[in-house]
Amino acid sequence: MAEDADVVTVGAGLAGLVAAAELADAGRKTIIVEQEPRASLGGQAHWSFGGLFLIDSPEQRRLRIRDSLALARQDWFGSAGFDREEDYWPRQWADAYLDFASAEKRSWLHQQGMRWFPVVGWAERGGYLATGHGNSVPRFHVTWGTGPGVLEPFLRRVAEGEARGLIELRFRHRVTGLTRSGGTVDGVEGEILEESAAERGQASARTVTGSFAIRAQAVIVASGGIGGNHELVRRNWPRRLGEPPKRMLSGVPAHVDGAMLAVAEGAGAKLINGDRMWHYVEGIANWAPIWPAHAIRILPGPSSLWFDARGNRLPVPLFPGFDTLGTLEHLRRSGFDHSWFVTSRSIVAKEFALSGSEQNPDLTGKSWRQVIQRARAGMPAPVQAFLDKGEDFIVESDFSRMVARMNELGGAGLIDEAHLRTQIEARDRDADNPYGKDLQVTALRGARAYLGDRLIRTAKPHRILDPAHGPLVAVRLNILTRKSLGGLMTDLSARVLGEDGAPVPGLYAVGEAAGFGGGGLHGYRALEGTFLGGCIFSGRAAGRAGAQAVV
Hints:
alpha+beta; six-stranded mixed sheet
């Protein structure tokens, strides 16, 4: 039987689109199958803030940030903590990705029309020794246009491939199996779902109206991770992070369920590092949800005080924006699924950014006028909307009333007012002290030494309880599922490997389904801005390798 295409790509997210674009450039025909409607083209990248990890970029150099491949590798491997036999290929992918991020990545994307906001962000600062976790310098480059801006060149290239007859998109096709012939994966089979008018991210119908089978010389799995499947998240939850939460919010739609990973595993693929995952601890319930348990992440500056559910300040260096998984591990030991920011309105106005393209209309819409208006307004409109409507936000001028409402929302009697006040007052004394020993205040002053943070991301140190900076703001923070750091094990050509370490003929994997490369190029911890880049890099590798492999 003749093939329907040279390659079938499962999933129409960023990694799958990149792979298909590369295949089309090489003259290969690709069919992309996607279980969701056309409205969801681009997958999770559409919702992202668009941050990309770059090394020694022009944007960094303009801000006098001295970065290098050697420093980035020290940060990456210090964060990853590779310590398993199956980390061989993740290590190889990490080295290859670092080379890409320090050399060709920016110029290649720039040639395709991608641009970046001039102020480089500083996410995951670490706070340990130089060889430990964290970015030693700012590396978080926000794409002009946020997530849609990242997708734009690849959507354009895919559309061009469609026009040339080299790419075909088939929506509402859910893959349930991989077909094999002579030991080689030669296609996919599955169910056709009824048409749906669901908007991007909304739940779509699962009524089956038929079946399908597609033959090809190779299959690329680009189906994403497990963040929308809380049962699977809990099943893979690592003991090192304590007990899995009883209550979690979702940073991705429900259809991000990990089902395709099991399909690939059933065809002989090796799935590794399933216990390595990336979930945020600054999740807030979206006041205008699109999918079930829809959450937004606060990207905080370093000034807000962080307390556990009982009102105990988190230990050094678990400050906002320093160590996501270290904070998650500490909070899981508290026995509660939530924690608190206690802060001032001045800090919220300066330091609260909300992750997501829809929460940043100025950057997403590429409007410098709106960017300037946002800076002049004092409080960004999307943040103000959460202050006004968000169920996790408490705004009060009176400290006692704030604590009473925290106890109403988080659990009666959990927080002792006097204990909470004592901790805040102690910190406030150091905020007024040019010397002091509070390491969070010291870290804040260090952050302000960076021009980008001083201009748009960090408030001038002040007393939280100073009425001039009020009212007070308390924010209940929830655990927000987001990314799988493990996945299908692949070699540097993105070929999926089996239990024996040999390639499964005809099978490739990219993006989150492959742990962004190799089955987990981040190891235990990520440096932020590396998820979209991992999708781009692995998709490019698979597209180019697949183009050479098919005849």
